[in-house]
Amino acid sequence: MIIQVALPGPFLTALDYGVEPNFQTEKLQPGVRVCVPFRRQTKIGLLLAVDVKPDCDPDKLKLLIEVLDDQPLFSERELAFLNWAAHYYHEPIGEVVMAALPKRLRAGEPLALPGLLSWQRSAMGREISLDQLPKNAPKQRALWQALSNNQAWSSSQLNQQFDAWRPLIKRWVSQGWLEEREGSCLSHNELADKPGHQLNAEQQAAVDQVLAQQAQFAAFLLQGVTGSGKTEVYLAMIEAVLAQGKQALVLVPEIGLTPQTAQRFESYLQKPVVALHSGLNDQERHCAWQLVRSGEIQVLLGTRSALFTPFANLGLCVIDEEHDLSFKQQDGFRYSARDLLVRRAQMSNVPVVLGSATPSLESLYNVEQGRYQHLTLTQRAGSAQMPSIRLLDIRGERLNEGVSTPLKTAMEKHLAAGNQVLLFLNRRGYAPVLMCHDCGWQADCPSCDANLTYHQAWHELRCHHCGFSQKAPLVCPKCQSKEFVNVGQGTERLEQVIQSWFADKQVLRIDRDTTRRKGSLADKVEQARSGEADILIGTQMLAKGHHFPKVTLVGLIDLDQGLFSVDYRAAERMAQLIVQVAGRAGRADRKGEVLIQTHHPEHPLLRSLVAEGYSAFAKDALAEREAAQLPPYGFQILVRAESFDPQHALDFLAQIKQVLLEVRVEAPCEVWGPVSAPMERRQGRYRYQLLLQSQHRRSLQAWLSQVEADIYRLPLVSKVRWSLDIDPQELR
Ligand code: ADP
Ligand code: ZN
Ligand code: ZN
Fold first, then answer.
1. CA of 475 relative to ligand 2 center, distance in Å
2. What are all long-range contacts of 212-218, with beta carbons under 8 Å and residues at least 24 apart?
């Protein structure tokens, strides 16, 4: 008897192993983990198939050592799905399987779950007030304050809000202030009350249409304007599916997965929900995975990789903000979580709902082709109205630190009315370029083709591409001058000038620099939401998904750079970003206003977007793609390679191209390159790419499959870093 085992590593297919003659064969179920010898080690893999015909002499095969599980971790359907993903993305099956397993299971830990520790104030602890803690220990006091809510706190909850909490908790346990308890796996919050409002007619129609087809695969694009209440639509559908004892899988973008999102789901559904987020430790991930796999928990809310979690009884798939780029994994196994989710729903025979205010052109094209059903929400939920959007022509206009007078005047008006203002600038730091005033010297990154950004708070120059940083120079390294100019503007600089203009207002900056500390993003978003801050300044972290009821004015400071990109997808991304940012305005009962500063008011993208909205823009953009036969009308595969010696990567790609040109393909397929990546040098490596293109997906895939094994055998393969990107989202 022979078994096939998926092992992590650069082997495209599963590996064959033999089995001792007296082995209990009923243990060999596809989907169990096994221990097998590999080179001189023992490795853990997943058994995929039994009794297959080997490619080589069966007597030469190495033998299975041990079976780790007495039940399969994945169903047959789920294994078929993982195989499909490996095949489609040309990714080694072992790597795909490992992406679907939590770390502890990859390491061979038992499937059964240990308990989870949590801490709660004891009777003695409840007597301890903040006054009994040292005054000069703010962290200690903040932690004790949090524990004073009389709930049990698990380590993931503590991790989300505090650093270095363990020693304090330990001390308080030994002092008898806290009780330590071992509970079942994930701890749960008490459920808040279910929100009272009724779905409006459009929302209800969307829910009804999906539920009418819930017994089979069907794909839906839910296109709802910002603030239209898409989440309530998902929740109503999920509720109906849960009532039948089935489960739901919900994917959200990285920044969309906050504790508030999970709580909103729990209070609506009145059931515990598992959220797979980056704050969980390995044990909690294992636990979450197992609770969903066993069916104990019915709803899984997660970012892209949650898509691979096994389910006991999947009934519905949902992906929110389906256009979001965070659904595309950009390194290692480069999959599109959106595309895979649709495939998984199809293989599981359940409906899938893709939601967005600004759907991707791919999804709109799928609607046009009849593959997805279109559900629309044209009105904002409740009493909110859509904001008015206006372009501010700033050509020749005197700008004060990048802000025009009309924008400043509008800010004054909205602030005087007691409302909040949001300013959007997608560049963090103080200034993107530091230049010598006398000789024109510029600070560049030593290992990338990029400028260093000046950060005033640390008086540092930082590379936003590789993480390099150094103290900002006091004298010019070229001419010894002490005169520098900061060219351009980042959020740090904008914050400074805005604060000086509106000295009595509270300004809150939200970008990656101000939200590094754990829990600070949640804190800041809460300050923004509650209306504590008057003026919000932020990058795209602030632009998406958030609901800030008091914001009535949104100002977009500088988008012009993005209007002229070499990437054909730039227009789509830009339009999505503008609509999403604009969508933060006027979400409650006060009408909102959006002002976009630009030097290019005639730009067709801006004009069609402002005059006619996203759908009209998307229609034009799709027509352009069709004329150029670009995706979604054509298909692409990008082969990337990088190396310290540029010649290695270039030669490697040239050799791949040569092999490609030697094999036959049915339909016309083209290969372009090698060309240098838009940023040729990054972290010291030179980067090149080869673009494969065709109108026929199957032929393009077959073309690559024919040469794939040859790529792994090229002598240069060990000298370069390389990757395949199927349906690339960014040509970088
Ligand atoms: P989006 O479509 O932008 O994701 P949300 O789902 O965040 O919108 O909803 C926006 C706001 O409208 C939320 O505060 C939500 O509670 C509220 N809301 C949603 N549906 C209704 C409804 N039918 N009646 C009243 N308020 C609603
Ligand atoms: Zn100089
Ligand atoms: Zn760099």
1. 8
2. 213/351, 214/240, 214/241, 214/315, 214/316, 214/350, 214/351, 216/349, 216/350, 216/351, 217/345, 217/346, 217/348, 217/349, 217/350, 217/351, 217/352, 218/351, 218/352, 218/373
